[in-house]
Amino acid sequence: MAVGKRKKQAAAKPAANQTTTLRHLWLAGLGLAALARREALAGAGRAAGQVDALQRRVRDLASDARGNVVGGIENVRGQVEPKVVQFSAEVEARLAPVLDKLGLKGQRTPRAQRKGRKPAAKKAAAPRRAPRKPAARRARKA
């Protein structure tokens, strides 16, 4: 049995007179609606992603700003604190002779440490009352 070559039939020629019908318009409208819906959902997803990225960026910027402020404050504090200690030492040194003449140097005593509060005594729990019983039901008068 020999298998012979089959010749493909030529594709049917499209009709020369293709008219647009209501069905064509209906199908085109459905396709357009489907594309619009898909793009709207994708656009909403992209917008949500951009919002998340923007939130992350704002958080990072706020964290960097906070770090810069804290670093600046620590720097200023490191410069100011020794000056304050030096100034207070100078003031005490200059006032020491005046306080000695007035006799006030010996009166100054260091403060006693505050005592912490004592914990409050625990109160005994109040005995539970029995639940109130509902009033007896009465028949209505007609």
Automatic annotation (TrEMBL):
Q: Where is this region: Disordered?
A: 103-142
Source organism superkingdom: Bacteria
User: In the record, what lineage is assigned to the organism producing the protein?
Assistant: Bacteria, Pseudomonadati, Pseudomonadota, Gammaproteobacteria, Lysobacterales
Q: Ranges of Basic residues compositional bias?
A: 111-142
Q: Which organism is it from?
A: Lysobacter enzymogenes
Q: What is this protein called?
A: Poly(Hydroxyalcanoate) granule associated protein (Phasin)
